[in-house]
Amino acid sequence: MIEVKHLVKKYGEHLAVDDLSFTLEKGQILGFLGPNGAGKSTTMNILTGYISATEGIVTINGHDIFDEPEEAKKCIGYLPELPPLYQDMTVREYLNFVADIKSVKKNEKRKMIDRIMRMTKITDVSERLIKQLSKGYKQRVGLAQAIIGFPEVIILDEPTVGLDPMQIIEIRDLIKELSKDHTIILSSHILSEVSAICDKVMIINKGRLIVSDTPDNLSKHIGGSQGLHLEVKGEQADIKKALESIPEITKLEFEKSSKGGIVKLSAYSAEESDIREAVFYALSDAKCPIYDMHSTKMSLEDIFLELTQEKENVHVSKNSNRLFRRSKQKNEEELAALGEEINNQESEHKEEN
Ligand SMILES: Nc1ncnc2c1ncn2[C@@H]1O[C@H](COP(=O)(O)OP(=O)(O)OP(=O)(O)O)[C@@H](O)[C@H]1O
């Protein structure tokens, strides 16, 4: 459906998109995530044929956006970050105008516009001038114009920005509804939004793809080792002994504060293993009752920060799991080097004294 290969965009010497490749199948919702200036809008503007690329290939439904722009653009509806609304038109006039540009057949036009106005909940304001509408309504009109003609692909740049919580929920529901018949790409820097509605997430930073996976897999794999927070009644030594009998546990961290005989700790295991049952039985055998047990998996927020705050030369990999191991290894190497440096400084200090 959408294929992007080795996309590069330079503004003068500035590399805004750096060798970006991805594919998207029909009916998927792709969340394009990245901090300010990551290259999201630039990529979307290239996909929709608004701006040219420096290098690379983009095909929409088999049509090359650069060689067959007319054909490719027919398959796309676009809501840019700042929707190009004609403020002095009424909502209906504007949607009529968009339908004409998109060559919607005359006999289908009215029915289609009425349907789309119902879907985007703007029927009530159909005869109002766009300049008199609130921000939320303007955004809905922007979305309505993107849907006119029911293109196969709908691209939405920050679709919920500036909306109130109720409007955000409505727009999200509408996007989900649209995904039944359309392929959708949306950009956002709101992680909860992306994890709530997208099938696939692509995190980009400084124009480069950092990771691409489902929201679930991102939490599972990039979260790396899983932590289990525990509150257990008993002696720390007994609890430690019981938990150390579980081979999957890689690390135990006891908290200093323990009140009323309750010991608080975190038990870590390899990313794929679920140790909850083993923990339950081991502590039960040791007569140490569990008062609380919950997983401390990394949230998508943590993952995003971890990945986008990586050093410049982060390894790009489709496999988030591998990527995390690499970055983790890198952090460990850096920590080891730092430790060595501190040791050296300490021994130098001792020698001096
Ligand atoms: N027309 C332009 N000329 C020069 N540089 C540009 C132009 N448009 C964007 N850039 C630069 O390219 C980089 C990517 O910008 P882009 O707008 O694509 O990022 P973004 O991820 O959409 O950010 P935001 O979330 O802030 O909208 C930024 O460093 C930006 O300053």
Automatic annotation (TrEMBL):
Record carries keyword Cell membrane: no
Assigned keywords, A-Z: ATP-binding, Nucleotide-binding, Transport
Lineage top rank: taxon: Bacteria
GO molecular function: ATP binding; ATP hydrolysis activity
PROSITE patterns reported in the protein's UniProt record: ABC_TRANSPORTER_2 (PS50893)
Domain ABC transporter, residue spans: 2-231
UniProt name for this protein: ABC-2 type transport system ATP-binding protein
Native source species: Anaerocolumna xylanovorans DSM 12503
Species lineage: Bacteria, Bacillati, Bacillota, Clostridia, Lachnospirales
